Amino acid sequence: MSEWTRISPVRELRPRRMAGRVVVGLFAASALALGVSGCSTASGSAEPVATQPPTSAAAASLPPGPLAPATHSPAQRPSVTGAPTVTAAPATFGGTVTYPDGLTVSVASAKSAAMSGTGPGSFPGAPLVIIDVVVHNGSAAPIDLDHSLVSLEAGTPRRIGRAFGSEGAVDLSGILAPGADQKATYVFGVPTADQADLHLYVDLDGIHTIAEFTGRV
Length: 217
Prior knowledge:
By secondary structure, the chain is an alpha+beta fold. It contains two helices and twelve strands. The chain has a five-stranded mixed sheet with strand order 1-12-11-6-7, with no helix packed on it. Strands 2-3-4-10-8 form a five-stranded antiparallel sheet, with no helix packed on it.
């Protein structure tokens, strides 16, 4: 028994007429669907609508680093007792700090950059300073670089630049044999206005005093 019969006996003669209307409605809907699909690409996706190009977001601002200490003391290392005994004069970026035992530290390059990372802990577009440090062991003994500490300060009042592991950063590490070189790259967050007065400190092993550099990018 049809659905119309279950609803009302009066409508038993109407199903065909109503069915015709449904069929006509379906044809109309199909025609409309074909008209819409005519605006689609061969792959079935709609034609792209022209839009304005996205504007670049403003560079993220870094939270200020901690205030720099008034003096710089070598880090405490379990394998080293007492104060460093091998000293050397400071140098500028592009120059070399040379110790009397033949160990040298130099700033091979220093440049300004913008952070490109977008993951957790990143500040896309934030101003950075990227510094390449080269250590040459011209001494007669191996140098342990596993506990090296490198820091950068800038600004007034002077603040410690925040170190990042992105943009190709590579730490000094391992045992540097006599006659060998090692290059490392350090990345610091530094406001653009402070990048004209930079102070780099390289604390290698607790035996050599901290290598100090000044410069700008």
